[in-house]
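USER:
Make up one protein:

ASSISTANT:
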Amino acid sequence: MTGRPDPQIRLDHLGLVSRQLESLLSGAVGLGFEPTRPEELMAAGPAGPVPLEQSSAHLVFGNTYVELTAVRSRSPAHHLAPWLARREGLLILAFGTEDLADARRRSLEAGYSPGQLARASRRVTYGARTGEARFEWFMLDPESTPEALVCFVRHLTPEVVFQPEVQQHPNGARDIEGVMLVTDRPLVMAERYAALTGGRLTGGEAEARVELEGGWLEFRSPDSWAALAGRVPAFEAPGLAGFSVLADREGVDQAGLPCRIEFAAQRR
């Protein structure tokens, strides 16, 4: 694929998922991030918001964020249950769009099965615009995305989510730069994601990349990932192996360019 990536689809957020939130919060703080206060995630029901037995804190950046989320529900019907049955860790890959209908069309054309459109919300108690953050979203069929819960989201209240008061982190982090995925068939998976997102495909059989508007997805074989990590990680492919965050830090290099914080995360 050549040319510029389709600007309609972008990286929106990633999700680190566990059964308890404390270790996610302490790990994030230890890396120099400043999480928001945890709040309950709610689904929109006919009689009002319905608790999802899931609480989340967030690492909010300029245009993206990382969700730190703990799932208390043990129900197999919970939307994260198929991935939590395998492991805890980096389990959510969310793309942002203003046109969910077009995203559903792309999903079908790329060979995926999109789920039903849903609405979700959470309380926001930070910044100058406290209130409710609201979203529309749909996820892809878990059987076709064993690597993670892959979804498309449209922010209904972006001004509530992306507030300057929570976009400053001690480590200088300012946005998610890219996501690393490990799979036995990097090029095949990359081709599907390129079709799914309208991204620009580069690379080959062992390593491939899909360039998005303002971010990238990198696909590696288990051997390639082990070589990159400098060790043989305990990693079950396919899965999200880590992500890279752009950060501004004084004295990092002479050119004054943003540094990168690379974070690999997965737990059994």
